[in-house]
């Protein structure tokens, strides 16, 4: 960031060296606040926390209202009444979400390191807030800002569309004209604001060379500095011949889960947002711990699922141990010279596997609760004996 | 993922682990200790071998002739040292220049946080003198270091030999790397100043003048300690700061040359024996290995080489020992040995990295690598994980027990059921665990900061010296922490007490497991010794065991008492057993040295124990006295 600002002050394009990969709007923002950088990042974190607080409060109200209607319509079988959520238990959840985000060691670490991830998180949190409040225009604008920063939030289009359609009582059906009309509207707003932002960046800097620097960098992964992601080790080891193939495979992996997840979770778009955020932060090309902090902040919203979670103990132990081992093995590799990159990558792999296990565990618990709400808590086979639910 | 998703197999495995938890823990502990003791048994070790090809094949005849002249130079150095009363800087500069080296000096000064009683220094000021022999035909990108510490009254022969070698090396044409001949004052403090100046870092707050001349990146270094004209054996010292060890190839190089030239070589001062299948032979090997483990666990550099390791420079110290043996080796032979070692190091194309960095040596020709000794530690950590699993299962049973009882009691009465359910549901009280955690860590912070801060106040009010004040304050804060559980209960809003201590124990056990794992990766010996004493504590403490006996056992197994026993054990292993009085004084000096090492060289043992291990142990103390 500082290099980019220095180059800008000298009148040279900041993207001419291979060091700077942030978007032009961010440079201009920092041009004004570079002396108050710490306050800016703290402010970004506070904005994220407040946005998440308001979003979750609104979401809880809607969940409770839907639950009340379902109870009155007598749609729940009798024996699953313990799964019903009460306002008293849901009262503290927004506060817990904000606290989870602010007090997470990962958030504090990324704030201290002055990583621009804090600003990305703020934009995504504002997007979530505007989507849940039902404001279509603001949601499209914030989503385009988030996509402008890094390409991956594009996949959050699908849950946003599903949620807004649900809120406006438009049925999700391919054959309905209102469905397509709404998609066209949203796409118009989204693409329009994206276009405006890109042209603004062009006029600010006077050239198009930020496009390959920012988006080409994210997509083609030229820099292989070790981080907590999965890309660097693979790309350091493979031959040039196959690089394009593996690049396509890895990048498609990020976008691929949108379609199946949207089909499965079309009734529950907020959970879909959570899953998408998690998939993005695990599989993106340059993840940071700030991304992880954002989706971990959502966990209190699903705290009612804890009785269906099966591997939470193992997962939290592994996540804790890996977070502690990251700096130790980095030190041993880079400073002491006694270990090598394999040790560090082993911990990275373990960390990502634990995150995947965490996300899939929550997915299982969510689906299982929905299943119980439809079919009853204590399942009986046809002859009346006790049955167990097995995920095949 | 059959095991993780199939509920029947999961339940079977988990019930097996919970039923047999205590027997499995005991078996694992015995197995871990037995595995560790078995490491010294010769059939389980590997012979050392040279891994670096560049150092392997040259057949060279060493021709260093000037041993006697080196000893004469050493006597001259001693005389000048006595005359000046410290380091004879001008004489050294003149002598090195006469031998054709580029000579530079560096002055440094440091005020210790409190006086060092072992070496009797408080405000240290000194000068390092070093001469660079430039490689005649190669670009000046790499360097080797030969150093000899200048101590009052000792080590004169080493400086003489260093100067003799400098003169001999100057006449040779085959040097491809620069050789730096360093004489440092005030041993480790001077060495730290020189290294910081060379690498432009300043991690310990020392004042030093910048170095005028440099030689390129240092590939290897040797430090000489020679205090007599003839020796009977050469001892190799490997342990460095924070338990870091040089690459095993350096030890292999030393051993290969001792075999070639025919000098007796020892490690930990012990000669290796051939009768590994007898009891006394095995116990000899165990003693050598335990000495290495103790030295590595202390985290202090046991020779001037210890500080090089942090900068990724392989270094070792060679000590000459003169004991009661018939065959004596003179200075010329030692010179030839060093010449041979340096010629081999001269051939290196890249830094030593082929051989192991983590190893234990039961003798100089056998070693145990990390793959063989880590399972011993792993077995001890498995106990902690099994205990954590057991506690988790107990905690979840407490919850599902509540759910089932509610369901069976109130079936059919929906609105009342909802109210009852909502009043009973409570997530595991993680917040109630927070208070003991915070208080334990605050005590740890007090143990870390108070001894240094309050030494002036303590000296005013009590008739003790500053060092004693620091050490006694540390012991006082440590013992005051023992009184905590009786007071923290006033602040605790203990949730259902049966659940509360289980949650605290789960957190404490996982915390200890992660802490010991990270410690063992950096310094295996320290991690293993802490695991030996703390894992039984963690596994068996509950509020329901007899309090007086278990309080006594907990104090015996606490880090401070472990240190006390290690001091006595270390003296026993070195065949210099001490009486209780002397042992206690030695213990106090070990604590003060540990604190000084942290402030002077950045050793991590003292902050680790004060800020992380001691609060963890306090958590278990808390659990014992849970009401």
TrEMBL record, chain A:
The chain crosses the membrane at residues 25-56, 100-129, 186-208, 214-235, 242-259, 271-299, 311-336, 342-364. The keyword Transmembrane applies. It is a multi-pass membrane protein. Keywords: Endoplasmic reticulum, GPI-anchor biosynthesis, Membrane, Transmembrane, Transmembrane helix. Its main location: endoplasmic reticulum. It comes from the Eukaryota. InterPro entries: PIG-U. One of its GO terms (cellular component) is GPI-anchor transamidase complex. The keyword Endoplasmic reticulum applies. Pathway: Glycolipid biosynthesis; glycosylphosphatidylinositol-anchor biosynthesis. It is found in: Endoplasmic reticulum membrane. One of its GO terms (biological process) is GPI anchor biosynthetic process. Belongs to the PIGU family. This is Phosphatidylinositol glycan anchor biosynthesis, class U. The gene is PIGU.
Automatic annotation (TrEMBL), chain B:
InterPro entries: Gaa1. It comes from the Eukaryota. Coiled coil: none annotated. It is found in: Endoplasmic reticulum membrane. PANTHER family: GLYCOSYLPHOSPHATIDYLINOSITOL ANCHOR ATTACHMENT 1 PROTEIN. Component of the glycosylphosphatidylinositol-anchor (GPI-anchor) transamidase (GPI-T) complex that catalyzes the formation of the linkage between a proprotein and a GPI-anchor and participates in GPI anchored protein biosynthesis. Binds GPI-anchor. This is GPI-anchor transamidase component GPAA1. The gene is GPAA1.
């Amino acid at each position: 960031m500082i290099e980019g600002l220095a180059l800008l002050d000298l009148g040279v394009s900041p993207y001419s060296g291979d060091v700077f990969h942030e978007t032009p709007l961010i440079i201009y923002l920092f041009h004004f606040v570079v002396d108050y950088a710490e306050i800016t990042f703290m402010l970004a974190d506070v904005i994220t926390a407040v946005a998440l607080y308001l979003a979750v409060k609104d979401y809880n109200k809607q969940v409770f209202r839907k639950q009340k209607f379902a109870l009155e319509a007598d749609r729940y079988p009798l024996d699953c009444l313990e799964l019903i959520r009460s306002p008293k238990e849901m009262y503290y959840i927004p506060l817990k979400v904000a606290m989870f985000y602010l007090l997470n060691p990962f958030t504090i670490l990324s704030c201290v390191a002055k990583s621009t991830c804090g600003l990305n998180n703020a934009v995504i949190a504002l997007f979530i807030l505007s989507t849940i409040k039902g404001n279509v225009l603001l949601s499209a604008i914030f989503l385009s800002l988030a996509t402008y920063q890094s390409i991956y939030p594009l996949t959050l289009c699908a849950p946003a569309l599903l949620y807004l359609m649900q809120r406006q009582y438009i049925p999700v059906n391919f054959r309905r004209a209102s469905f397509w009309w709404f998609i066209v509207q949203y796409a118009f707003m989204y693409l329009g604001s994206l276009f405006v932002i890109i042209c603004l960046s062009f006029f600010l800097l006077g050239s198009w060379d930020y496009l390959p620097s920012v988006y080409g960098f994210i997509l083609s992964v030229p820099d292989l500095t070790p981080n907590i992601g999965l890309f660097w080790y693979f790309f350091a080891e493979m031959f040039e011949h196959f690089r394009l193939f593996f690049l396509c495979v890895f990048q498609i992996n990020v976008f691929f889960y949108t379609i199946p997840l949207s089909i499965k979770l079309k009734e529950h778009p907020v959970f879909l947002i959570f899953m998408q955020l998690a998939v993005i932060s695990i599989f993106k090309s340059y993840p940071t711990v700030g991304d992880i902090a954002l989706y971990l902040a959502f966990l209190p919203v699903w705290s009612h699922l804890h009785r269906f979670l099966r591997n939470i103990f193992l997962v939290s132990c592994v996540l804790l141990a890996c977070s502690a081992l990251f700096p130790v093995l980095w030190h041993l590799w880079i400073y002491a010279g006694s270990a090598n990159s394999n040790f560090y990558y082993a911990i990275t792999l373990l960390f990502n596997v634990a995150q995947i296990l965490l996300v899939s565990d929550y997915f299982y618990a969510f689906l299982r609760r929905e299943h119980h709400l439809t079919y009853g808590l204590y399942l009986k086979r046809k002859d009346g004996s006790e049955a167990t639910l097995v995920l095949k | 993922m059959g095991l993780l998703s199939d509920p029947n197999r999961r339940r079977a495995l988990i019930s097996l682990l919970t039923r047999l938890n205590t027997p499995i823990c005991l078996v694992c502990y015995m197995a871990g200790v037995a595995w560790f003791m078995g490491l010294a048994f010769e059939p389980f070790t590997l012979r050392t071998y040279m891994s670096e090809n560049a150092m392997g094949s040259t057949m060279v005849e060493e021709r260093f002739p000037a041993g006697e002249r080196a000893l004469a130079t050493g006597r001259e150095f001693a005389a000048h040292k006595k005359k000046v009363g410290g380091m004879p800087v001008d004489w050294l500069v003149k002598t090195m220049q006469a031998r054709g080296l580029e000579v530079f000096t560096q002055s440094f000064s440091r005020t210790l946080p409190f006086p060092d009683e072992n070496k009797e220094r408080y405000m240290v000021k000194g000068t390092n003198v070093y001469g660079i022999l430039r490689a005649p035909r190669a670009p000046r990108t790499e360097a080797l270091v030969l150093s000899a510490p200048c101590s009052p009254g000792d080590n004169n022969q080493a400086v003489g030999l260093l100067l003799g070698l400098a003169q001999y090396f100057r006449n040779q044409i085959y040097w491809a790397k620069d050789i730096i001949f360093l004489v440092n004052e005030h041993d480790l403090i001077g060495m730290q100043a020189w290294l910081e100046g060379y690498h432009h870092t300043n991690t310990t707050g020392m004042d030093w003048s910048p170095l005028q001349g440099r030689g390129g990146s240092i590939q290897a270094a040797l430090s000489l300690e020679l205090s007599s004209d003839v020796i009977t054996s050469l001892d190799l010292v490997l342990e460095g700061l924070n338990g870091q060890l040089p690459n095993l190839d350096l030890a292999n190089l030393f051993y290969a040359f001792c075999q070639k030239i025919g000098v007796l070589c020892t490690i930990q001062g012990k000669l290796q024996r051939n009768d590994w299948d007898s009891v006394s032979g095995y116990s000899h090997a165990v003693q050598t290995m335990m000495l290495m483990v103790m030295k590595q666990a202390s985290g202090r550099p046991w020779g001037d080489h210890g500080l090089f390791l942090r900068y990724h420079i392989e270094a070792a110290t060679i000590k000459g020992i003169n004991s009661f043996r018939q065959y004596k080796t003179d200075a010329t032979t030692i010179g030839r040995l060093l010449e041979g070692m340096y010629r081999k190091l001269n051939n290196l194309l890249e830094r030593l990295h082929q051989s192991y960095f983590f190893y234990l040596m039961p003798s100089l020709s056998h070693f145990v690598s990390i793959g063989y000794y880590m399972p011993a530690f792993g077995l001890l950590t498995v106990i902690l994980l099994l205990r954590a699993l057991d506690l988790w299962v107990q905690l979840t049973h407490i919850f599902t027990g509540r759910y089932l009882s509610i369901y069976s009691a109130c079936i059919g009465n929906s609105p009342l059921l909802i109210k009852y359910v909502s009043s009973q549901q409570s997530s595991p009280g993680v917040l109630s665990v927070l208070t003991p955690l915070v208080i334990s860590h605050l005590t740890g912070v007090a143990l870390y900061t108070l001894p240094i801060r309050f030494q002036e106040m303590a000296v005013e009010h009590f008739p003790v010296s500053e060092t004693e004040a620091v050490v006694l304050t540390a012991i006082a804060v440590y013992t005051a922490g023992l009184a905590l559980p009786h007071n923290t209960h006033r602040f605790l809003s203990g949730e259902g007490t049966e659940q509360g201590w289980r949650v605290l124990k789960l957190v404490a056990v996982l915390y200890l497991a992660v802490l010991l794992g990270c410690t063992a990766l950096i310094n295996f010996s320290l991690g293993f010794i802490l695991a030996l004493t703390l894992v039984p504590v963690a596994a068996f403490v509950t509020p329901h065991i007899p309090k007086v006996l278990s309080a006594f056992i907990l104090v015996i197994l606490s880090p401070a008492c472990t240190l006390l026993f290690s001091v006595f054990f270390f003296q026993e292993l070195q065949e210099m057993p001490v009486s209780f009085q002397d042992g206690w004084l030695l213990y106090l000096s070990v604590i003060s040295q540990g604190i000084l090492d942290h402030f002077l060289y950045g050793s991590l043992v003292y902050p680790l124990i004060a800020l992380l291990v001691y609060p963890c142990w306090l958590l278990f103390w808390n659990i014992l006295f849970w009401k």
